[in-house]
Structure formats: structure tokens, C-alpha cells
Amino acid sequence: MRIIIGITCTILLFINCSTAQIDHSAAEQYFSEVEQILERDGGHLWGESLQGPILLVDPDSRQVVANYADREGNLTRRGNIYTGKLPEEFPIANTAVEWSGVKWAMIMTPVSSERYARSVLFVHELWHRIQEDIGFPPTNPSNNHLDTKEGRIWLQLEMRALQQALNHTEDRRREALRDALLFRAQRYSIFPQAADEERQLENHEGLAEYTGLALAISSDEDRRRFAIQKLRQAERLQSYTRAFAYHTTPAYGILLDAVSSDWTRSISHRNKLPDVVKNRYRIQLPHSPADEAERRAQVYDGDTIIASERERDRERQKAIAEYRNRFITEPRLIIPLEERRISFDPRTVTPLDDHGRVYTTMEVSDVWGNLKVTRGALLKEDWSGIIIDLPDDRRGRTFESNGYVLELREGWEIVPGDRHGEYTVKKR
Known about the structure:
There is one protein chain. The chain contains ten helices and 21 strands. A hairpin with a 5-residue loop joins strand 4 and strand 5. Helix 1 packs across helix 2, helix 3 (149-167) runs parallel beside helix 7 and helix 7 (245-257) packs parallel to helix 8. The chain folds into three domains: 3-113, no CATH class; 144-300, no CATH class; 331-427, no CATH class. The longest helix is centred in the C-terminal third of the chain and has 28 residues, at 302-329. The relative contact order is 0.11. The chain is flat and about 70 Å long. By secondary structure, it is of the alpha+beta class.
């Protein structure tokens, strides 16, 4: 799960290790699988077909295999597929991206050997290709409240209640679903901005993931099981700020499917999906949710969640102190962002007050060159720059220091910034 921001995120594909190329017959098989899935849908789910160009990319060799021709002649036709190579400065991720005159669903290899998981990913990224066309603009909300102790506690309780709702029917489903919405209401009472921020990510990544489940998995029972599995997986996530919607929205979507066959055709990016669920299931919530939410939390082993989150919060405060020292207090390198392409893992994010967010891993390309991070970098809140540790030797064009590799293009160099201890990258 990796994301590219700029124009607009695992396990086995057959690869010939001697040439580092994607196996063409396997790629054709995967293209055929997703084509059959989308032909079955016929554009019914969203009112528009998701069929379109797919770009399979090997991140090591940068070799690509596509199901469509490009418009600039960078791909060569080989039977039913097209092959080529991405330029070095182009970040690689699971995302929708424009390259060589075409808007693609880009898929990193290796991909899952399990057909459902693989097909869900393909459909997810194909939805991102058309999301603006069907009225869902890409967004990048912070959701920093989901890295706090209280935010995480009430989110985990909501996800446990959603599991119970998916496991039952009729009255027991409605009761568990009411609990999920109650826990969400309690979270929103603590963090008033959360409702809008969560809506943005759920209507961006969440609806893409729901679409993957809805189209790629053939039976209602299998979709339900897959959604429950995703909720259980979420309990082990390091960070929810960029990742929670991959787990909550498919659950709400499948629960909506049980009572409405056309809800996707009547919502917009302004809708909050849990509100749609509440209305379709005719659920009433108390005006002040705190007391009832505290009582209902015990049904879902709330004390264990609270104890775990207290321990995590202690470790989080240590990490924040280290990041603050590295990126705010100590000498640092601030790299400006102008024509950014950024790839990152949404599961490894730590908000750092109002300064921005620390991403444990990240790949960036811009006018100045390329940056690959493996041990943390601070992306400013306004996306104007990236902050990393200052390298000891500031001469040359390639720098390796404390978990990153920075490669500058010809004519760019590291120079002193406006404040003491600050350096930046400028064109000579």
C-alpha cells in the first residue's frame, strides 16, 4: 500500500530474476482477470466503466508491462501487451498516474498470489483513474487526531463493532452498527474537525477500496469475510492517519449493500458514508454520546484497548521527541518542493505538531533530483518542503546520511539557508 501525491499507495508476481523483468504471461493473465471483472460490472456500480490502462512496474529494474499502448512511443508492443521502462526520476507506487500521454492505474510488483487480494488492488487503482470524472476529487487530509490516544481508542472500538455488525443480521447487526456509529460520534465530540477530515479520506481511499471488494469478489459471503479480515488487520497498524479508510469504508459499504443496491449512484464527495448508513438503517444516536459510549465500550473489551493505547502513547511521545530534535532543533536540510512527485507508505506516518508529518519511508522526485528515505523525513504541513538530517559532507551531488539517499541533478547544490543551522538546496 503506497501512494503518490503530485499529479494527484505484496507478495508474489512471477519474475525472471536473471533479467529482472515481469513475466509477460503472468501479466496477461492478470490483465485478463481484471477485464472480466469490469465487463461483468459494465459500469453499473458508479455509472461509468472502470476499464482502462494498467501499468505493472517492477520497482528494482523499472521495467513495465502495460495492457494499452502509450501516446509517446515509450512502449513496445509484444503480442497482447506493451513493454518498456520508466524514467529514473519517476516515483513508483500503487496509484493513478499520468505518464507518456496516458493516465494509468500503476501497480507495483510483486503483487499478491491470492486472486481476490490481487484483483481488489487492480480495481482499487482503476477507480482512482476515474474518480474525478465521477465527482470524487483526490484529497490529502491530515487526520492527525487518529494518532492520539483518544482518537485511536474510539476508532478501534468502532472497528470492533463493525466486525460484529458484519458477523450478524437483522436486530443484532443493527445494534452493533449503532455501537460503531456511537463510538464515531464520541470521537467527533472530542475532535470537532474529525468529521470533515475523515470524510475526505473515506471518499478518496475508502471508496476505492470498497469498489475493489464490491467488484473483484464474486459472492456476498466472501465480500463480508474479506471486510472482516481487513478490520482485524487494522488492529496491528502502526498508524491510522492515512490508512484507516482502507478498513472502515469497505465495511460500511458492504453493510449498505445489504439494504440498498444503488447507494453508490446517489452519493457525492460531500456525503459522510456513516451518515448514509445511519439514515438507511434508521439509527438514532444520543445528542451527548459520552456516557453511553463508555458503557458500550465494555462490550468490546474497551479496557484492553485503553491499556494498549496508553503504552503506545508513551512510546509515541518518545518518538515525537526524537523527531522534533532531528527535524526542528538540530541542524537540518530543508529541500523545497516545486514539481513534486512523492511516494510514501500511508501506514507509517507520525504527525509532528503543526510542523507536518514524519514518513518513515518516502521517495521524492522534483526539479532538483531524487530523494529516497528509509528512516524518516518531515514533510511540511503546507507541502512546501521536506526536512532531513544535514549530511556531514555537503560537497558533490550524492549524499547518504542517516537513512536517506539524496541525488542532486547537475547544477544543484546544498547551501546555507536563512537561519542558523538551516541549509537548503538551490540551483547554482
